[in-house]
Q: What sequence folds into this?
């Protein structure tokens, strides 16, 4: 009797084990083959019920997360490098996508480029990108944004580039202290060290938008941007290329101050260059070594190019060359003053330009020159 009971227990135990194994296999099969599997690497959406101020239904979607397909996950698990260029859609299920929540794409190493879809009329549905939405995207190399910061009308620390990457220290990110407002208030953000290129596809660039960013190398601006505001790229030491559209007519105070990697810029349509705008840009003119400031420039601020130690030749058509405008341009040996109606060269404009001699300043005779405009009366 005891033998029969033990045998029966063994049979039941084996049967239960087989049932459990079959259940696990069925679950795995369903995960891979049924509709619940992750077949696509994409964003995770959440519907928000909303009523506008007129009482009309105004539902929309937010992006609250990100999911990687089973196929991509398997590749990554096997050590394969998977790269995805992701586009945030204007709509999902025929409703607008208006917001990306905090941490929505956090630590998504699969994303190498991120951009935003426009509507047919060129506008964007996205209105808000919350703090740290893109935190830890350590393989991101390029991003196209409809605005800088949290929103197009953001203020204080929410209006700077680093805001969308957040304040959490993450491996693979560079600590960037960004100034905002007057330039005295600061906030530290952690931006992916891989990120080199930013394209602003919207039309608003805030003051101090990228100030202190030591990661970015290239900035491309939308053709509707008309001004580079105060301090916008101040201290961006890695920046070596900026693509200014023809629409830009004003470069504000300190706009590129301390951009020690910037080697070239086109002033063809610019009418105003602010105080300290390119101060300390020690590679400006590198390669060609000639800086050309066209006749469109009507206002040249004080110390605009002070300490630009790579410039060796200068062609300038301004009516007034301001105080300290080229102070300390130590490699400057030739200046062509191309405003044939004459003008004024203010005090200290070319002081500490030790290599500049009188015979190498063309058309100087038709300019009014203030005292100490040139170094040691060499001119």
A:
């Amino acid at each position: 009797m005891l033998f029969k009971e033990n045998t029966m227990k063994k049979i039941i135990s084996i049967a239960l084990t087989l049932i459990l194994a079959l259940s696990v296999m069925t679950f795995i099969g369903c995960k891979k083959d049924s509709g619940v599997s992750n077949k696509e690497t994409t964003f995770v959406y959440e519907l928000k019920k909303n009523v506008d101020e007129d009482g009309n239904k105004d539902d929309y979607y937010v992006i609250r997360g990100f999911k990687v397909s089973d196929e991509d996950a398997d590749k990554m698990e096997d050590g394969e490098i998977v790269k995805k260029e992701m586009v945030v859609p204007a709509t999902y299920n025929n409703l607008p996508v208006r917001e990306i929540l905090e941490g929505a794409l956090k630590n998504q190493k699969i994303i190498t480029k991120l951009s935003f879809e426009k509507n047919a009329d060129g506008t964007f549905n996205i209105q808000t990108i919350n703090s740290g939405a893109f935190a830890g995207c350590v393989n991101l190399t390029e991003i196209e944004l409809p605005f800088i910061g949290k929103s197009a009308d953001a203020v204080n620390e929410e209006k700077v580039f680093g805001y969308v990457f957040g304040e959490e220290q993450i491996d693979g990110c560079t600590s960037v202290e960004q100034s905002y407002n007057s330039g005295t208030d600061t906030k530290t953000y952690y931006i992916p060290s891989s990120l080199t290129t930013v394209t602003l596809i919207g039309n608003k660039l805030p003051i101090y938008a990228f100030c202190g960013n030591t990661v970015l190398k290239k900035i491309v601006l939308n053709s509707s941007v008309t001004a580079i505001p105060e301090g916008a790229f101040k201290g961006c030491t890695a920046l070596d290329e900026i693509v200014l559209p023809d629409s830009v007519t004003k470069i504000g105070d300190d706009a590129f101050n301390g951009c020690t990697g910037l080697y070239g810029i086109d002033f063809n349509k610019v009418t105003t260059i602010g105080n300290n705008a390119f101060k300390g840009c020690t590679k400006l003119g590198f390669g060609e070594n000639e800086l050309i400031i066209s006749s469109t420039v009507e206002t040249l601020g004080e110390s605009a190019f002070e300490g630009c130690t790579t410039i060796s030749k200068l062609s300038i058509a301004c009516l007034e060359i301001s105080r300290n405008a080229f102070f300390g341009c130590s490699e400057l040996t030739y200046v062509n003053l191309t405003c044939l109606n004459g003008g004024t060269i203010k005090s200290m404009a070319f002081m500490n330009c030790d290599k500049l001699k009188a015979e190498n300043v063309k058309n100087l005779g038709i300019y009014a020159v203030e005292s100490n405009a040139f170094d040691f009366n060499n001119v």
